[in-house]
């Protein structure tokens, strides 16, 4: 949204987390005398004197505040479907990403995909920095996007990791868009998978002939989105770990960065935490942390990457209605020996696996805490083999988020390694 269109509006910042606070301070600098509204479901403990000219709407009835405002700046974590009953026809719904894309004077590289976008965005950033380009990493993996606008110039390049939630309200697409893959995800957030795909496609929907679209031509859904794009198309293919590198390399080529510099940056890049992260070898067992694998497709990719040495896998978590049939097939095909299963999807994964009734059905263990899971991993994984945490499910029923889950796994792996 053009900032001039907000000048005469009554503005509500909906959601006051990391991005919501960035929205507030950005607007406060632009409109120092304007009264701003802030609405959040949580009763935030904060010194209200530090937020001048602000009306607060906190607690369970926070959505009732929407009717008093002309423009709503929605945080990504708040689903569109829950605010829909409170929206009037003439209200403008926008977002931090929409404001950034409309007002950024520099080039924007947008990266999306159900999985792999953080790694790809970080790698693109490293390649650009290696060439001396004035690059910035913003979005999910980097800083919130609005504060950097105050110092932005036409020479700045912004690598923006874009979730589906951030793409929802945009009316302008990045100059360079990257789509890695699309699998069923966030089905509790959207009305259906079709809506999720439609929102993802916004990353290229508004591109023109001078823009670029780098896309995974091996993913059927992504390929269909690309067919409708007006941008210059650069198809890429490959396995999950290769795809990230290929996308980043293609961005480097668009910027005419020498091939040697691109490859050096790629080879020096260290994998991000919780993404098939090698923890270490303890008591002869190799441990991998893939806690960010919150969908079955991500876990399948991890199993295929680690290969025949994988003996034990820790699975399960919060149930968002995903289909585990293909995962069960891969588990049996890979001859994994041990399944350690968290509630509630652990039970569903085991039922799908058990249906196949093959000769070498793996051992299975139901646990409700990470300590028991790691103890079992040490007990049943042989020396020279691999134990993998790759839940194929969200974390919210047992952990704060995937990071807490992964960090606890690593901590306990190291703790029990010291025991005789």
Q: How many angstroms separate the termini?
A: 61 Å
Number of domains: 3
Strand % is: 15-25%
Q: Which architecture of the largest domain would the CATH scheme give at its second level?
A: 3-Layer(aba) Sandwich
DSSP summary, beta strand count: 17
Globally, the shape reads globular
Which helices and strands, and how do they pair?
Layout: E1 11-14, H1 18-30, E2 36-40, E3 54-58, E4 71-74, H2 80-83, E5 92-94, H3 96-103, E6 107-112, H4 117-130, E7 135-139, E8 157-161, H5 164-167, E9 176-179, H6 193-200, H7 202-205, E10 212-216, H8 220-227, E11 232-236, H9 240-254, H10 259-267, E12 277-282, E13 285-289, H11 296-306, E14 310-315, H12 325-333, E15 338-341, H13 345-355, E16 363-366, H14 370-380, E17 386-389, H15 402-417
Parallel strand pairs: 1-2, 1-4, 2-3, 4-5, 6-8, 6-9, 7-8, 9-10, 10-11, 13-17, 14-15, 14-17, 15-16
Antiparallel strand pairs: 12-13
Name some characteristics of this structure.
globular; six-stranded mixed β-sheet; Rossmann fold; 15 helices; Protein-Tyrosine Phosphatase, Chain A; six-stranded parallel β-sheet; alpha/beta; 3 domains; UDP-N-acetylmuramoyl-L-alanine:D-glutamate ligase; 17 strands; 420 residues
Mind explaining what this structure looks like?
It is a single chain. This protein is α/β, with parallel strands linked by helices. The chain folds into three domains: about 90 residues, 3-Layer(aba) Sandwich (Rossmann fold), CATH 3.40.50; about 170 residues, 3-Layer(aba) Sandwich (UDP-N-acetylmuramoyl-L-alanine:D-glutamate ligase), CATH 3.40.1190.10; about 140 residues, Mur ligase, C-terminal domain (Protein-Tyrosine Phosphatase, Chain A). About 35% of the residues lie in helices and about 20% in strands. The protein contains 15 helices and 17 strands. The chain has a six-stranded parallel beta sheet with strand order 7-8-6-9-10-11, sandwiched between helices. The protein is globular and about 70 Å long.
